[in-house]
Structure formats: C-alpha cells, structure tokens
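hey so i finaly got around to running the thing on Immunoglobulin superfamily member 21 from Irena cyanogastra. pasting the sequence first so u can double check i didnt mess up the copy paste, my clipboard has been acting weird all day
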Amino acid sequence: YLTVSIEPLPPVVVGDAVTLKCNFKTDGKMREIVWYRVTDGGTIKQKIFTFDAMFSTNFSQMENYRKREDLVYQSTVRLPEVRISDNGPYECHVGIYDRATREKVVLASGNVFLNVMAPPTSISVLAADTPAPFSRYQAQNFTLVCVVSGGKPAPLVYFKRDGEPIEATPLPEPLAGASSWAPRNLLHRDLDDTKVPKSLAADGELGMGNPFPTAHPPRGLAAERDSVTESIPETVVSREFPRWVHMAEPIYYFRHTHAPVSDGTVEARATLTWTLNPQIDNEALFSCEVKHPALSMPMQSEVTLVAPKGPKITMTPTRARVGDTVRILVQGFQNEVFPEPLFTWTRVGSRLLDGSAEHDGKELVLERVPAELNGSMYRCTAQNPLGSTDTHTRLIVFENPNIPRGPEDSNGSPPGHCGFRLVLALTLTVILELT
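ok and heres what it spat out for the 3d tokens, dont ask me to read them lol
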C-alpha cells in the first residue's frame, strides 16, 4: 500500500522560511519522491525537487534555494526566503516499485497551497482633481484619495478626522473601466470679489443671492483697480475665504476599490467625499489608516487641510534693466498648504506683456522687458478649496547702458540738431564778415 499526505500551511509573510512536508506510508520499495509547483490553473507542473532512491541522489531544480530532505517516511523541502512568486499550489508525488514486477511503478500524490502575504509598501493621501479652480460662493464636493500599494491580499483602509474614525456611507464600486475616484462637481472658475465689478457684487448677480450683506462689504482689491499705482505698497497680501457657511454636520461618502498588479500585489484606493466647509475644515487633520494581516500595527498617512497664506515671491534679476528677461516666482508659503493651490498671475490695470489677461502657474516670465513696464504692478492669486491669498509686487525697470536710447540723445534733442546749429553759426559769421 502507499498513502501520501501533506500538512496544511498557515499564511506566510514574504521573507519567511517555509517547510513543505510530504508524509507517506508504504510497505513497498521506494523509487522516487518528486515535488512540483503547479501554475496556470494546474496546466503546468514545474519540477522543483527530486529524490532518486535507485541511486540515492537528490536533485534540486530551484535556484538559490537550499534543499533538505528526510528519507525515512517523509520528504521535506525548505524555502528559506519566500517571495510573492512562490504563492500557489504544490504537489508531492511518491513512487514505489510494484510487488509483482519491478518494472512497474505505483504512484500516489498529495497537494498543499502556499499562501504568501506581503505587507503594503507605500501609503499616500492626496486630493482628487487638484490643482483646480473653485467657487467661493457655492458649496462643492471635496474628495480625498488614499492610495495603498504593494500589499497582498488587499488591505482594509479607513479614514479618521482629528484622530476619530469617520462614519461614512459606503458607495458602490464604479463600473469596469470607469475612474475609481469619486466625482467632484466643481464649477469653472467663478469671479471672486477681487475681480467682480462693484455693480455686480452689490446687486448680488452671482447666481447665489446676495453674497455680500450690507454689514460685510466686499473685501479685496476691487476698490483699488481704478487707481492702481502709488496707493498700493510694494508688496500686499490679502486673504479671502468662501462666503457661505454650512450649518449641518458633514455627511461623508466612502468608496474602496482595488486592482491587481502584475507582481501579484494589489493597489487599493479609498476615497472620502463630502461637502467642504472651509469655516470648519480649514486646519482639520485627516488620516488614512491601513490594517493588513502581514502588519503588526496599522500603517498611517495624514494631511492637514490648510488654505495658503504668506506667499514668498522672488524676482530675478533683482535689479532688472531694459531688455532683460524677468522671472517672478512663488517659492512657497509661510505654512504647509494642502491641497496644492492654483496660481494665477495678472497685471493690475492692464494686460500682461504677451497681451493675455492672465497666466496660470507658479512662475511668470516677462521676455525682454521694455522701459514702459517700469512701476507696473503684478498680482499673484493662490487659491485652493480652503481659501485664497493675493500678493502684489512692483516691477522696477532701470536703464540699460548697453542699449541705445532711441531717436533722442541724452539732452533730448532730435538727431542732426547739433549739426544744424553749427551750420547756422558759420553762416552768420560769414555774413558778418562780408558786411
């Protein structure tokens, strides 16, 4: 008789050592013991270890693995450092000689499944659809996305606010091929009170009723647009926040999706969506936590929702001359800003050098500045869904001695005027001498 049995294995973690035991009982003479790794749903069996009893030799077909075997009543294969690729079923085949004829071999086999787990390798929290314009006069949705990579199986992901778990309404998984990020019903950039004419702001023609009560007149630079030069200091910073207030507690919506990766791991994405309220959400701490059977304690990544303030602007060269290329750059803020703000540049009271009304980006480049830009004021608006801030800086353009001044000389006289005076003087001298 011949019986083969393999002890079941608990899940193991990548890097652990694993021992596969093939137990058998027989009263016959053993011929061989062979271990196979089964792939492609059982269609392919890869031989990984062989014991040939006829010649008492061992063969290991596994690279970089040390083999160990017990030749009495069991064959043992040891995997010193398992990888995710080792995950799957294994079979042990035992062959003995038939009693009637030594030319016939009787076979029996057993199988076991090796479940290899891998802890997540990275976790990050970001805001969906940023940087993006927003409306400070209308409530809108905001979505946080937590991305967890490198785990097997898929981890359990959940959100916390200020250290407290968030009770969220689950959303169904999106259809195949659709984006796993929750939709964000953001409007196109609406006019804010630094850009709206006073007549519109006063009459409440923004589609949301009158956003400016009489007790709270519009703030910003609207009143300064008509007289824009000397009344504005060299650098001005103002902050604006949305005007609406949500009185009710926010309702959170949660979606969890995962997608397999080619290396056998899973990328998990969890989204948290709610109606943003800058009055209570500004400086709120949100964290994404991950539980996984291969982790001894949860992984965590956190962000704080913060509106931009205190922009730091640099201008190069610091002493611009006519014909230079001037770069005005936002280097950062006095605080850590999240989500990433949207930057918009405008020239106060006029268009930009290239003729456009505004320019998006952290840097504004003025190619070959003319003398006419001397004293011009530039405004940078940095905004995210928590609020916005305006910064103004003045461009001073100095003369460039390497560039001719044009049709006039240093005394402001047109060309040829000095020669004309010389000819006139010689003519008068000649006339006086003749008389």
